[in-house]
Amino acid sequence: MTADKVLILEEAANDLFDGKNFYERQQAGLGDYFFDSLISDIESLKIYAGIHPLRFDFYRMLSRRFPFAVYYDLSDGVARVAAVLDMRRDPARLCAQLTKRR
To answer: What is the pairing mode between strands 78-86 and 5-8?
Structure first.
């Protein structure tokens, strides 16, 4: 499957900026690298949408460079990114966050 369009929902955009700020506090410039890497991963959904395993009723794509996962759904050729979450968190917390975004 492929996606004609990729939409990043507001909550997912907030997740991206939270991650960027976290990594920028670790080292100058690392936040920008994080953001660019995750945007690149998300853009790859135009080609690879729908091939990822389902977790918590969303497709889950793991980031290539950071311990983050992109959660999205796919319908009518549109991949909607609902969350970009740190995989080092408690799975119950991840589930609760994703349940609120359904």
So the answer is: parallel
Q: What angle do CA 91, 95, 100 make, to 5 degrees?
A: 150
Please, are residues 3 and 74 in contact by the beta-carbon 8 Å criterion? yes
Q: Please give the sequence-ordered ranges of beta strands (E in DSSP) within the chain, or none if there are none.
A: 5-8, 54-55, 58-62, 68-75, 78-86
**Residue 30 predicted with pLDDT over 80:** yes
Q: How large is the average pLDDT for residues 74-101?
A: 95
**Coil/strand/helix, residue 55:** strand
**Confidence (pLDDT) at 102:** 85
Residue 86 pLDDT exceeds 80: yes
Q: How far is Cα 51 from Cα 87, in angstroms, rounded to an integer?
A: 19
Walk across the sheet containing 78-86 and list its strands.
5-8, 78-86, 68-75, 58-62, 54-55
CATH architecture of residue range(s) 5-101? 2-Layer Sandwich (3.30)
* Domain extent listing, the chain: 5-101
